Amino acid sequence: MLIQRTTRFVNYATAISIVILVAATATLADSLGRTIESRRWVLHTQEVLVRLQGTISLVNEADALQKTLLIDDDPQDRADLAARLAEIPREWQTLRELTSDNPVQQRALVRYRSLLDSFSQALTAGLRRRPQEDHARMRTLRRAIQAQAATLRAEEERLLALRTVSVNRDLTRTIVATGAVAVLSIALLLFVRAMARQDAVLMRTEQARLRATLRSIGDAVIATDLHGRVQFMNPVAERLVGLDDAQAAGQPLESVLRIRTCAPNHIDLPAMLREVIASMKERARIEVSGSTSLQPDVVRDWILSCHPMMVNGKPAGAVIGALEVTELKQSQRHLSEANALLEHRIQERTERLAEANTELRAFARTVAHDLRAPLRNVEAYADALLEDEAPRLSRQGRGFLARIGDSARRMDRLITDLLNYSQLSRAELRLQPVDLGRVVRLALSDMENQLSRSRAQVELVPPLPMVLGNEALLVQVFENLIGNAIKFVPPGVTPTLRIHAREDGKVAHVWVSDNGIGIPPEQHDRIFGVFERLHGEEEYPGTGIGLAIVRKAMERLGGNVRVEPTAAGTSFRLCLPCSIIQEKV
To answer: What is the pTM of this model?
Structure first.
């Protein structure tokens, strides 16, 4: 009876575990679907932004070509201008198709198309008249186009932010679901294994006490004499064969225990009994599948055992034990199927993540090449106009060209910084002992020209510790911090920097302090975000990504960076793991 209760408990617990595992697997599948869908929308929004930037690039290129034609009517330039003007409606149509699910963007695109058409007409008309006649109108159209493009971009960036949050949330859910499925699978395997071991222990215990406790054994037990006639059956055996102990007594075993075994584990029970009695060697844990005479159409699984029975040291017969394991076999099959499904899901997720990484790398290459090429063209045309046509341009015109060149160069720096920032997350870093003193000296050497122009004074307080990190990445961190210290100072003030460090157990703390304009306490966390600027481009130029790169680099190195309160200027505190080699510089 104890074995029966244990088997029943194993069956119930296994069924519950499988239900929980199936539910967790379903949750994992749902999370994977949500992650894929969210990722698709993120890529969709990014494509819209790229297409929108494409229309702006086409407008700028067409404008530059028109100005070139006004100076020198070259047939190739005229063909290029016609191609740009023809490409603008196609690019707009692509934008409209991509944003067909967003009524707000659709309405904004109608206004955008009107402005683009007016701009194209004005460019064409400007080739037939003096440019001074359409200067004001063209300037108004360019500003209107830029403003409308900014409106479209703002909406898409808002959607991109929301969809990025959704991707991160779905990815977290997927990771949690994967972990839950893995933990449940392992727990179920351990549970089944533990229960199987417990069953084996119970079987051996009952077998050792067979002669005195036969009727209390949870297995079907049939005892025979030397001639194979039934002498005893426990209640479990009675239910198995459909006879009670009195009815089966004295009958041959083959007429009582009628199990038709199936291939490949076919076994002849009478022959096995005779072999055990003759050899006095037990046959234990024989797995067979078959049916009984009571239920000939139902195939079940059993574990049979046959032991010689000794009385006063002499053979007196044998004991047949039969344990039905049909449900346990089914549970094992279900578990194998669940494990196979889990492995398939994990493989699919791994492949999808690899595809996503490939797409991200392709996008980065596109940004590095396709987006920067038009910027170089704009900058080159602006510089060429300033160099070749400066006497024929008004002061205001020269100013506009200078602003165009500056904007193109700033956009190029911005793209470069964005690429550096994105590569920080994907690049493989090899951490090794790094001399911080050498790192600072390399950064100061790279920035020698800027330091000289600003007449900055740098105080390097030795010793600087050895840390576990990446030299190239740390040089970039210090270059960004030193560059900010040089840049963000009040007019007329000579930049002053102080770099010192202290070790605290296994952590090295490094301070980079300056006498600059300082950062309000409420902005200490904000400044480490991408594109976060506290001052205008005209007052302090820059891309707004430098400190974001610093934070990302420190996180990749296993450290952190923060701004500490100070009476004047700014003080950045870097925390890095110390190297095992504790040499000082």
So the answer is: 0.37
